[in-house]
Write a structure and sequence with these properties.
mainly alpha; disordered N terminus; Tetracycline Repressor, domain 2; 2 domains; homodimer
Chain lengths: 197, 197
């Protein structure tokens, strides 16, 4: 709990994540989450529409953050750089202190196909919002879609590695490594595949 | 109907797609699909588990086709080339004669969020199967995931353009253009974004 904000919303999130991990997402009730957090159900519903929302409420804030950062990127940034810089800032500002919480969340989602679908929908919406932000910077199509989709794919891959691991490097570091890897993968032609084994 | 196989399965697919387009996916029944195809409900259930399956039954065959092509790619092909060559072969062998059907299907899915989620899940599973195929070729991580995710993202973007358009170029041509665009996007650094407007 120490690494998460100790406000009511944060306590509800931690309590929910703990209970989802202990008893499963489906078996957990809002009443139990509120009780574990030392709060009332009424307080729960002040912050979250339902127990699923506890897992996804951060998504809207993340999307807003990333879009604002792409909008504010210097004109000199290439489309992919604008996306990647935004993702790295979010990693440092939002995620880096919350690896334990992120790992719990990831495990809960991995165990439930309905939640996985929800996560994929949210990520698709995020890629679409980031492509729109690039278009506002004057980036054409399909470059805008491609840069946004590539950025979100990299984020997902880096995020999965980061929650699976318990030590360094940071999420931002992993994102930058993955971008380098994407550059290698797209630049590579001919007999390079095997040497990578 | 001329461009689709005129067997029972193909007739059921066309009938379903027409009815989904005319009355909406949710309002259409299996009985209506069978009737439109001039077949019995019993015949419908010989080919499809339910009316949703009509939209997604091709996915398993596509995945098998792509994985087989990646497995069979020459050792000299880079990870991304192996994926892209497989996608372009599938475009020519499976999709090119079926643009009308693909457009109908896309419209039905776009109108229903449950179907969209299903489509995203299938595409995520496809990317995962392609990454596994690359690993069998000796490609390491995260290169395997990144090449597979990039390939599937490109396929989706190219496919969307292709069904939206009614004329040339071919799907395979669009995929190759999108790969070139990905190469530009990843290679680009600094003040290039604006010039793309």
């Amino acid at each position: 709990m120490a690494r998460w904000a100790p406000d009511a919303q944060g306590r509800l999130q931690i309590a929910a994540m703990e209970l989802y991990g202990e008893h499963g997402y489906e078996a957990t009730t809002v009443a139990e989450i509120a009780e574990r957090a030392g709060l009332t159900e009424r307080t729960f519903f002040r912050y979250f529409e339902d127990k699923r929302e506890v897992l996804f409420s951060g998504g809207a804030a993340l999307q807003e953050y990333l879009v604002a950062h792409v909008d504010a990127a210097p004109p000199s940034a290439s489309p992919l750089e604008a996306i990647v810089d935004a993702l790295c800032s979010a990693s440092d500002d939002i995620f880096e202190d919350r690896r334990d919480g992120a790992r719990l969340r990831q495990a809960v989602i991995a165990a439930n196909s309905e939640l996985q679908e929800r996560e994929l929908i949210k990520l698709a919406a995020l890629a679409s919002a980031l492509a729109d932000a690039l278009r506002r910077r004057g980036v054409g199509d399909p470059a805008a879609s491609i840069a946004a989709e590539a950025g979100v794919a990299i984020f997902r891959i880096a995020f999965d590695d980061w929650v699976r691991d318990t030590v360094d490097p940071t999420l931002a570091g992993r994102i930058r490594d993955s971008v380098d890897e994407l550059r290698r993968v797209t630049g590579e032609r001919g007999p390079v595949a095997r040497s990578r084994a």
